[in-house]
Amino acid sequence: MAHAVSRDEDEWLMAVTASLSKPRALWRVLGQFKGQPTAAAVPVLGEVLRVDDPHVQSRALHLLAKVPGVAAGEAIASVLKEADSRSVALAAAKLGWRRARHVLPALIECVEQQGSSLGAARAAVLVAIASLADARAQDVLSTALTDQNRDVRRSSARALKKIRTHKSREALEQAAQELSWCRGRYARRALRDLRHPG
Length: 198
Fold this sequence. Notes:
Strand content: under 5%
Number of helices: 13
Order of helices and strands: HHHHHHHHHHHHH
Radius of gyration: 19 Å
Largest sheet: none
Structural class: mainly alpha
């Protein structure tokens, strides 16, 4: 069921559009809307994401995260290819929070193509992938079991445990055997939970 665009939202969207070329003014205008944006805001907020200002992108991502539906998730996912690492990390967190399974391929592509150039955002993207616990991500999650970041290792092990396929179990067993005691503890814990549920 589509929600009607309120007069306040309509006026706000016009002000956002008028401010697209002025990042400081745009940032202020974005903060003025206190309601929940509707799907009508997605195209305008998608344009805002193209503004080369991480503060503006951040505010637009927070607003898009409030909008239900596939289009908002796809707009958030568009940041994965073009933005700075701070915006990529925030976009990944919002997608993980939304459980946006339809953008899983974009998250996987982001990690595979940008890899270490993502810096700290790489961990956020991997944690978002893990939060979906989708069998399509088994290869990425299996590799992430050896990541330097503890949160990535933990969330990957939990996701592989939830996936419960032969391949995910093998990845956990391999990590539990090959990694040091400290780095392999999440894989061992996931295996223990699989063996002794409850």
